[in-house]
Amino acid sequence: MKKIWLYSALIAGAAWLNGCNPEEPAPTPSGDLLGIPYNPQSYSIKKPAHFPVVAVPADNPMTVEGVQLGRRLFYDPILSGDSSISCSSCHLPQGSFTDNKAVSKGVGQQEGTRSAMSLLNIAYVEGAFFWDGRSPTLEDQAIHPVEDPIEMHANWTNVVERLKAHPTYPALFRKAFGINDRDEITKELTAKAIAQFERILISSGTSKYDQYLAGNNDALDDEEEDGRIMYFDAAGSAGVVLPDGQCFHCHGNITMNGGNFFNNGLDSVASLSDFKDKGRFKKTGNPSDQGKFRAPTLRNIALSAPYMHDGRFQTMEEVLDQYSDNGSGVSNEDPFIRQIGFPLGNGHYSGLTPYQKQAIIKFLHTLTDTTFVNNPDIQSPF
Amino acid sequence: MRTILLLLLVTTFFIACKDKEETLTTNLDVTFKSTFDGSQLIKYHDYTFNGYPLEISRFTVFLSDITLLKGNSETLMSEVEYLDFTPDNATSDTSKLIKVSFKNVPQGEYTGIKIGYGVKPSNNAKSPADFPASNPLANDNEYWIGWHSYIFSKIEGQGDADNDGQFDHFLVYHTGSDGVYKTFTFTQSIHVHAGQKGLQVEFDIKKVFAWDDGRPYNLVADPITSNNRDSIRVANDLMNHFGKATTITQ
Q1: I need a surface site. Which of A305, A319, A333, B178 has the fewest CB within 10 A?
Q2: Chain A contacts of B131, Cβ < 8 Å?
Q3: Across the interface, do B129 and A233 touch by the CB < 8 Å criterion?
Q4: What residue spans define the domains of chain B?
Q5: For A133, which residue in chain B has the nearest alpha carbon?
Q6: CA-to-CA distance for B204 and B36, rounded, in angstroms?
Q7: A286 to each of A291, B54, B83, how far by Cα in Å?
Q8: A233, B224: Cβ pair inside 8 Å?
Q9: What pLDDT, on the 0 to 100 scale, is given for residue A6?
């Protein structure tokens, strides 16, 4: 009660003083962009009805102007040191926003160490971008490739100066973020715009599998259906006996983005420290995370070969052959890798027959969404 | 100006009087902890289970309708919580202590707490697309299309059941479906007052792997849950064990 009286007295005092000292008028804003209207329109992310709601950060709301700016920046080599590389150089629509290379090449054709990840449904990945999950947000992720010496090999200070001096970008930043002067263009705003564009890269819902999810029970043929059953450990028809492919446990359900980090049994090493690419350990520093990578999306997987973090597999057949071998015996391998097929007793599993592998591959083909890759709203604006 | 000040003071007076008539509330802090045989769970640590080494690599659980009890009255604190004790962003193998602050809990002396283990049927009938992004049930990776159910709990690991130095008995216990949703009531005094110490809720995985009479569950014979009737039995057994595997202290 005493506190209430104290606060009241303080408020009264402030009101009194306010009456004695009229506020000085607000300063008139200055800036070379003030003549351009700032009326951002909210952007409603299109998604299939059966997809989850997209989480949008409060400090980067989706606007039409933000998405347009981000799309332009995504395809513009202005972000690279020698103006030869853009985000789209490694993330092309036709590859479902991969470059279909084992490892990507940056400025000067310098070879990286990992394959470009697909950006399809990237909006659904939570808190861990890149193969090793070192970036917590899309906005943060967009900042790193610009200064990476084997990617865009630029300096953000120089890139921002180019944007400020550009005949078009200052106005676009004004319309997207309400800046008054081109000097307010920053790498953070640039990354925010790119993130807004990336958030609209969502499946169209027209793949064969999505038609099945929408209720069309005839969408999948018998072999594709067998593949689906094995992918999801799902109940099949009476009399149908199929093993568990264990796929969805790592790659997830609707968006098939996985999200967690796994050692999927690619390499046999004597000790975890022998992994050539330490993967998730790079971010966490936890020795048990050596050799673990984020499970990528399997949507449009038929369009985004080659496969794995280093692009070692050219075909899905190679991938299924690898998994059918039930791992490499390393201590931190995911337990599901060891349990593919029918149980044989004593902890051993059968792996998959040629038919079962082919059925899973056929099912994976039903995830192909050409409507997405051909969507004019996500192509280069240049 | 004088009129405004007078109105302000009068309003404040009436608000102060009104507060006294309403129930006082406070935040109740609850720390959730995962253990193995009483010690905080550490991933890949070699525990001894039924005479052989056993390692746990993942433990998650959904809880539903966390409710304080006072005689016949109930105070719902949370409809759903998702607890991931072994998140992939951890910098060490020590399992995470998960602190949840339940807001605006009426102060008083309670006689117990009731907790649902898993996702209650009314929510389990839905899917991630039905929930806002901020809701734990919006997480697509915690849903099992094949079972039309959320994954109520995940316990994964590996054991060296034959003591030959090879950890080749892999455990994957993912439970789900309405039939294995369980509710347990813990009868004990719980004090909820401003400044009062919160609760600690511990889940002991060794006790999840034990029958009521203490016999160890046969992890070798039933190492995995997948889509067949026998797995439902295993899932049901493990979810049943969560009651006695839970310890609540204040």
Answers
A1: B178
A2: 52-53
A3: no
A4: 27-249
A5: B89
A6: 5
A7: 11, 20, 21
A8: no
A9: 61
Residues 167-226 of B with CB under 8 A from A: 167-172, 174, 220, 223-224, 226
CA of B187, closest CA in chain A: separation in Å? 37
Distance, CA of B112 to CA of B72 (rounded, Å): 11
- The β-bridge relationship of strands B199-204 and B25-36 is parallel
Q: From chain A, pick out residues whose CB is under 8 angstroms from the CB of B226.
A: 233, 244
| Alpha helix stretches (DSSP H) within chain A | 2-20, 64-75, 138-141, 144-147, 156-165, 169-177, 187-198, 208-213, 222-232, 247-251, 281-284, 316-324, 354-365, 370-373
Per-residue CA distances from A357 to A230, A338, A339, A364, B186 (Å): 10, 16, 15, 11, 49
ipTM score: 0.83
Residue A63's closest CA among A205, A192, A202?
Answer: A192
Residues B149, A178: Cα–Cα separation, whole Å? 45
Q: Which of A211, A195, A239, A158 is nearest to A70 (CA)?
A: A195
> How deeply is A200 buried, as exposed, middle or buried, from its count of CB atoms within 10 A (0-12, 13-18, 19+)?
buried
State residue A348's pLDDT score. 82
On chain B, the residues whose CB falls within 8 A of the CB of A290 are none
Cα gap B93→A272, rounded to integer Å:
14
> B84 contacts in A (CB within 8 Å)?
none
| Rounded-to-integer distance, Cα A99 and Cα A306, Å | 9
Shortest CA distance to A116 belongs to which of A136, A145, A138? A145
- Shortest CA distance to B76 belongs to which of B123, B122, B28, B31? B28
Which residues sit opposite B182 in a β-bridge?
B117
pLDDT computed for residue A25 by the predictor = 62
The pLDDT confidence band at residue B232, using thresholds 50, 70 and 90, is confident
Query: Which domains are present in chain A?
Result: 64-203 (1.10.760.10), 208-366 (1.10.760.10)
CA distance linking residue A275 with residue A270, whole number of Å = 9
Cβ distance A249 to B5 less than 8 Å, yes or no, reads no
Q: Between A51, A56, A286, which is nearest B91 by CB?
A: A286
Tens of pLDDT along A141-160?
999 999 999 999 999 999 99
Q: What is the DSSP string of A254-305?
A: SS----SEE--S----SSGGG-SS-BTHHHH--GGGTTBEEPPP-TTGGGS-
Chain B environment of A248 (Cβ under 8 Å): 144-146
- B89 and A284: CB-CB below 8 Å? yes
Q: What is the pLDDT of residues A249-269, one digit of tens each?
A: 899 888 888 779 999 999 999
pLDDT tens-digit series, residues A92-132: 999 999 999 999 999 999 999 999 999 999 999 988 999 99
Partner A, chain B 123-152, Cβ-Cβ below 8 Å: 127-129, 131-134, 138-141, 143-147
B residues 39-68 lying closer than 8 A (beta carbon) to A:
43-44, 57
Contact A294, A128 (CB under 8 A): yes
Q: Sort out which chain A residues have CB atoms less than 8 A from B4's CB and list them.
A: 15
- Tokens in use for A315? 């075909």
